[in-house]
Amino acid sequence: MTLRPPVEYAVAVERYLAASGLGTGSRRVYRIALDTWAWALADRPVPTGPERRRARPPVLPLALLERPGAAPRLQAAAAHRAVTAGTRTLNREISTLRAAAAWWLTRGWISTDPTTTLRPQALPAPAPTDPARLTPEQLSALFALRAPLREQALWHLLHESGATIEAALALDVDHLDLTRRRTHTSTAPLRWRTGTARLLPLLVAGRTAGPLFLTDRRAPATTPARDRCPHTGRARLSYRRAAELLTTHTRPLTPDATGWTLRQLRPH
Known about the structure:
This protein is mostly helical and 268 residues long.
């Protein structure tokens, strides 16, 4: 049975993904990328942060891809995404849209391909392996940000203790000796100063076990018990997410809007 050509962009996306042979996780990534271009085609900004998770992409006719203004809108969106999302993310999104558009074109669902002018961008030069550590002025600006308690506690701990990111994120609540401002683990203890000492009791908030730094959402059922909070059901914060949060919060503090990295928080 031959399916009738879809009218809506979202339906065309789902049919493309269903025929792609991709795994569940990859289909989710591809769907997010294709939804991103829906905002561009509607000439609307892509939601960011928590709003992105709750937002539904606009309902569009697939024929919008054939209109003369589609290619310029996609190019303008790509230029904006290069700044806000980074080159690697943009290149992945361009590749996803071009593959989907080519598939739709071969089936006669669209008659022209507006993605032919979209080209992957050259990746920036690799960052130095040991980025410059933040100056006292930069640290003051960082700690003055109106960032959530979890982020501020992690940033203070990394700077004041000199701990590696991996060691800080591996901490559990019962590792802390809040009175003596140190950990009591089998390895060398971490020690911190006033800033961290002020924030950690607030972060713990009565918890007695489980990961110190938690995600915003409940952990998937497959999460190991050691990485799940027994009080809230949330998971241990990952290195990747912690790095993303710092970069996002500090983009306004850097001239090129690239933000800072976790390794720059180490003390001098």
